[in-house]
Specification:
heterodimer; A: about 475 residues; alpha/beta; eight-stranded mixed sheet; 11 helices; about 20% strand; globular; B: about 425 residues
Chain lengths: ~475, ~425
């Protein structure tokens, strides 16, 4: 099977097109009538509704709460989609709760992947499905990933049943400096992408450093063809965005410009920046650029060299989304090391394990385990329960949804996984996964195994995958 | 300092010598599918395994290494890879895996392109991989060329066996390389074997430049041992129909020594594969319909094929195959995990470990030489700090051909340089 990654790195579709300069916003546009027009910031609203669940108590279970806490022989209680209590010791249950004996098992918050292309590079990976890179101009902040996401991607089910993934951010690809808006999804199949959208999650903006944008446009003899070209186009674009924001903030009449609207949303703090950036020196440049234009970077993604500037990232409060051991597939990944994640964590910076891959998303717990073990071998002693922050709470923070999910705290969404053993072992798999308190996967019940439309009526339908 | 010396030795190629070593007290895994042996001893001498197990006599001159609490195993054999062919995948001039503009095909021999200095060799060595099956990628047509078996040693002598097999792609890749259809690939294949027979009958008379012949002389010559059954033919096929069409070739060319690689839908035709006695180098954890030839992908594929009697190993075709062979251990561990998933079929631990050691060696015809700790095999031994299939385990020592190997890589050097990210009294460039 050709790896998704290879297609992302090597085969960014080279659809011929003219150099794209940003459309010029008209200085003056027809004034809307006397009634003041309010910008609808949510024109494609979430229609996600939690599925019904039964009040449930999981007893005698080892709990990682996702914020670094651990309870042995604990009890997790949830009802009506929300976590009620996370308790240690002997618990007398009220009536009306389904009880699950978790002896020898673990409960964790559901895994959250901050970097996925499920839906915009779905399976099967045919050209007709290649919807992740609007590689027709280096500035494409006007595109929204949700308008590409195919909610029938079979990959969502694999991420759920093998990966224990309950929420994920779908990003545009990295062909462009400004790739477009991301969308955060609940990992629950729906007929439309709106039906999967995580209610209340802020939008993200995908940006990209380095090799990909300069290669894609340099190969067409367009700007950017160098890293300095990358930065110049970035800065010129932010200047336009600042101007647009200044005008719209003052209530001046401007023609709506989707491209600049998203960037203005970043400058106003409504939209979170997720910046694909491998090299430490480039991250340092991008940090200065964020200061120059007054915006905040939520996370560097694929940040294989974060370990070289972990102190800077800690100071700036920027998360690093990382792989455990991917390296060497392209020049800017050559200095990746297996201890990146624990080194970033040790410096006090926010560490996240991410996938960028329809296969890797099924094993993020194993990736965290590898990084944790490599860290310990170099003397960085991080506990298992602390390491789980890399998989749920830290990604939730980077996505702006940590007040809703990402840890097992009363009142938060009941997004959780019952593992059939230690979740930092290769021998462990999800046994049950709940999203908003609804049982969406049960290893013991073939009817609780989602099958996308694509797989229906085809060989292997409904199989264990 | 020791690390530094070892890394310098690696850099300047200081010859190391195979000595007599006795590794005692560890949990010894032979690699042949037998159960681990607690408190076993492994003796290596003159570059070969002398004995492994309990009650092993330790030669007086042996260096003794205490492996109490550790696991001692044969090195991992990468069942299908492109290790040694790329420094950095996307840096074209460092990547020799494919030759899309070459007029040659079946005769392209990877051996002279294997570069023991690429970082992937050291990285995989440090992760417990000691040998790899290395194949070229297809270019001019469906025949990719001649593969090799190599070692991961820190020296310039990487080739264990060159011209170990011919690699050909059927399925979607073969169709693409043959003009656009699977039907065309089957015609191309048959025509190529016919031309090889023509060449064998009368080498001087073979005109590789005539209008009617497709294979160049050298390519026709390279296929002679294939058509005569003296060289294995590793065939890439993924879908059940493509697998069956491949097995059918045996009826027409009974001497073909076939091995299947990929085989994502093998579970659907496991009985036929087993009956044809064609061994398989399977991709272990494919479970996505990534293409129309893997619609029925499931991680249970390997377990189900094994249950059907298929002789199989794990490989990683087109799956980071220039660099990440060490993931074979993680994949094997995942197959063990399936034994606890209702409705799924996995492998027991012993079979899973054999699938990444003795089985890939056997499948490429080198089972008597590498892949296990049975006496007489090459002295490829790894000491692990825990279960080698568990993702948290690490490698503590590696021998290849009985030679203790350095485990320093440029990654570990970077790790050590940046253990504290801030500069000291001089820039990081002075820190080594």
């Amino acid at each position: 099977m050709a790896s998704t990654r290879a297609s992302l790195i090597i085969a960014v579709a080279l659809a011929g097109c003219a150099a794209n300069t940003s459309p010029k916003p008209a200085a003056v546009s027809a004034k809307p009538t006397s009634s003041k027009q309010v910008l609808n910031k949510d024109p494609y609203p979430s229609t996600y509704k939690p599925y019904p669940g039964v009040p449930t108590a999981i007893r005698n279970v080892t709990i990682y709460d996702g914020e670094g806490g651990r309870i042995e022989n604990g009890t997790v209680i949830f009802r009506d989609g929300k976590l009620e209590e996370i308790l240690s010791g002997k618990v007398e249950l009220k009536s009306g709760y389904a009880e699950i004996d978790g002896t020898g098992k673990w409960v964790t918050p559901g895994i959250i992947d901050v970097h996925s292309h499920l839906g915009d590079y779905p399976s099967p990976g045919v050209d007709a499905h290649s919807d992740g890179n609007e590689a027709t101009g280096p500035v494409r902040s006007e595109v929204w990933a949700e308008h590409s996401v195919w909610p029938q991607d079979p990959g969502f089910s694999r991420a759920l049943v093998n990966g224990g993934v309950t929420a994920l951010q779908i990003l545009p690809g990295s062909a462009n400096l400004f790739g477009g808006r991301s969308v955060v999804l609940k990992n629950v199949y729906a007929r439309s992408v709106q039906g999967m959208k995580f209610p209340g999650a802020p939008y993200g903006l995908k940006m990209a450093c380095g090799e990909n944008p300069k290669r894609v446009y340099g190969n067409r003899n367009q700007m950017p063809s160098t890293r300095m070209g990358n930065m110049a186009v970035n800065r010129q674009t932010w200047i336009k965005a600042a101007e647009y924001k200044r005008k719209t903030d003052k209530g001046e009449n401007v023609t709506r410009d989707l491209q600049l609207e998203t960037l203005a949303g970043v400058l106003s703090g409504d939209i979170l920046v997720h910046n694909h950036c491998y090299r430490a020196d480039e991250m340092a440049q991008v940090i200065d650029m964020s200061h120059e234009f007054g915006y905040k970077i939520a996370a560097f993604h694929h940040a294989v060299e974060s370990y070289k500037i972990a102190d800077l990232l800690a100071k700036e409060g920027i998360c690093s989304a990382m792989w455990a051991d991917w390296w060497g597939f392209k020049m800017e990944s050559y200095d990746a090391i297996n201890e990146n994640i624990p080194l970033v964590h040790k410096s006090g910076a926010c560490a996240i394990v991410h996938s960028d891959d329809a296969n890797g998303i099924q094993r993020l717990n194993q990736e965290a385990a590898k990084a944790l073990a490599d860290g310990r071998r170099m003397g960085i002693n991080i506990s298992d329960e602390i390491a789980w922050t890399w998989l749920s709470y830290n990604p939730a923070k980077a996505l702006g949804i940590a007040d809703k999910t990402g840890s097992l705290k009363p009142g938060k969404m009941a997004d959780l996984v019952l593992w059939n053993g230690n979740p930092l072992s290769v021998y462990t798999r999800p046994e049950k996964v709940w999203i908003d308190g609804a049982l969406m996967y049960d290893a013991n019940d073939p009817k609780k195994r989602p099958v996308s439309d694509f797989e229906l009526g085809q060989p292997g339908e409904g199989d264990t995958k | 300092v020791k690390a530094l010396l070892l890394s310098m030795a690696a850099l300047i190629g200081t010859p190391a010598f195979a000595q007599t070593v006795a590794i005692t007290g560890g949990k010894v895994v032979i690699g042949d599918g037998s159960a681990p042996i607690e408190g076993g001893t492994v003796v290596v001498s003159n570059g070969q395994i002398v004995a492994a197990g309990r009650g092993v006599t330790i030669p007086a001159n042996a260096e003794r290494i205490d492996a109490t609490g550790k696991w001692v195993t044969p090195g991992i054999v990468a069942g299908f890879s492109r290790i040694g062919l790329a420094g950095v995948d996307a840096v074209d001039e460092s990547n020799d895996a494919a030759a899309n503009a070459s007029p040659f095909s079946a005769s392209i021999d990877v051996a002279p392109a294997i570069n023991p200095d690429v970082a992937a060799i050291a990285v995989n060595r440090a992760a417990g991989v000691t040998r790899a099956v290395v194949a070229p990628e297809t270019g001019a047509n469906m025949f990719a060329g001649l593969g090799a078996v190599i070692d991961m040693g820190a020296d310039q002598d990487a080739i264990t066996r060159s011209r170990a097999f011919e690699f050909v792609a059927f399925g979607a890749a073969g169709a693409r390389e043959s003009g656009g259809s699977r039907a065309a690939a089957h015609v191309f294949f048959r025509n190529a074997l016919a031309e090889a027979r023509d060449y064998a009958r009368n080498p001087a008379g073979y005109d590789g430049r005539s209008k009617d012949s497709i294979l160049l002389r050298r390519d026709a010559a390279a296929l002679v041992p294939v058509v005569e059954g003296r060289m294995r033919l590793i065939v890439h096929a993924e879908s059940a129909p493509d697998i069956l069409a491949t097995l059918d070739l045996k009826r027409e060319f009974p001497k073909l020594d076939l091995v299947l690689v990929g085989v994502t839908e093998g579970w659907r035709v496991g009985g036929q594969i087993a009956a044809a006695r064609v061994p398989v180098i399977a991709s272990a954890v494919n479970d996505l319909p990534g293409s129309f030839e893997t619609i029925a992908a499931t991680q249970s594929n390997v377990g189900r094929m094994k249950a059907a009697g298929v002789n199989l190993a794990i490989g990683m075709i087109d799956d980071d195959d220039t660099r990440q062979a060490m993931h074979a251990a993680q994949y094997a561990g995942n197959l063990v995990a399936l034994t606890r998933v209702p409705g799924a079929t996995g492998l027991n631990w012993d079979d899973a470990f054999a699938a990444i050691t003795s089985k890939p060696a056997e499948v490429v015809g080198m089972g008597k030489e590498i892949g296990s700790l049975q006496a007489g095999r090459r002295g490829d031994v790894v000491i692990w700090d825990g279960d080698p299939l568990e993702v948290t385990s690490g490698v503590e020592a590696v021998w290849i051909d009985g030679v203790r190997q350095p485990l320093v890589t440029r990654q570990t050097r970077l790790r050590d340089r940046y253990a504290t990210p801030q500069e000291g009294s001089l820039p990081k460039a002075y820190d080594r």
